[in-house]
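Let's study my pick:
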Amino acid sequence: MNARSAFRLACVACASALALTACGGAESGGDSATDPITIGISLPLTGDFSEPGKGVQRGYEAWAAAVNDSGGLLGRQVELRILDDQSNSDRVVADYESLIAQDQVDLVFGPFSTRLVVPSARVASEYGMLFVEPAGAAAEVFEQGFDNLFYAAPAIADDHYNHLADTIIAMPEGQRPQTAAYAAMDDPFAQGTAYGLKAKLEAAGIQTVVDEVYPPNTTDFSSIAAQIADSQADIVVGGTQYQDAVNLIVSLQQLGYQPKLAAFSTAPTNPEFSAAIGARTEGILSPTGYTTEAPYPSNQEFVQRYTAEHGNPPSEDEANAYTTGQVVAAAVQAVGCAEQGDCQQQLIDWLRGNTVDTVVGPLSWDAQGRPQSAHLIQQYVDGEIRIVLPQDTAEAEFTYPKAPW
């Protein structure tokens, strides 16, 4: 038995004995009916993933405020303990070790980015903690053997573009694009979104003419943009986060490249995207697991509260974080507990067999924590980003070919 496992078992024994003092010198998270329920979180508030990381923080804080205003969980207020992992996988491991073993938090929520979710989920698993996360969608997350993990969004990365792929493949042969260019950040989520679409289009006979992978800290996209522009690919697909997508799009626009379709993961759903690109967003596509227009009752309340506080509606990052809170809260309310020890397995077991209503719709999961739903496709239409696919939920008509940018 390693030291970490021994410590965890010792702390579980302390909790089972209802010890009120710290176990092994760690600060107690609070067990009484009046103590707050403490929730440990590590987020990339600085570093490569800081932009979406701050969005996740806002979503978590919005959920906590809503819960506390309505009386808390199990009649107890919730308290978030958020650390900055600096977008570093070693730091995120140390953060969750500290939160669980030293601070003795009652619950944990996941970080942003597959790169940080996998190592932090491993820590949570070793301590027997439920691990619901808002932003680890790459296929590898669900191939680690975790039995405590749940992704709080409608679909994993490889399936984000399914509705777009189906639409392109169904086009008459004379209209269907013939060539495609791909540029993806060296990141499991970003590559997953782009290459999930790539696999489907290649299987349908659409030729890949550019396939570039770049480091997460890349800022100069002139050479990649030149390759794409020189290829004159019918469509361009970016496996992107935020700033890299902005820089790539600006570089492509400066070269005068005019694709028939342009799709970028994550970035176009960010409220700052339009200001960063300027007036040339028309026709740009992105998958999204969330829309502020969704009719779910909790979503309407979420949008109203969030907009009143921040002056703008929530984006997908905020919504997935809020969903994480809703998922954990549903399990806590159903099981009737929120602490380390045997309670965690009860929470995990409950989520395995139940569906939870959230701001992104009803969610259920397979045995590896994959959500069993699908992402929507958004497109900028007349200057506004609108749902265009699938047709039965569309807010505007899918435009192909896109307008020049």
Observations:
- The CA atoms of residues 97 and 123 lie 7 Å apart.
- The first strand starts at residue 37 and ends at 43.
- Residues 1-30 have pLDDT under 50 and may be disordered.
- The first helix runs from residue 3 to 16.
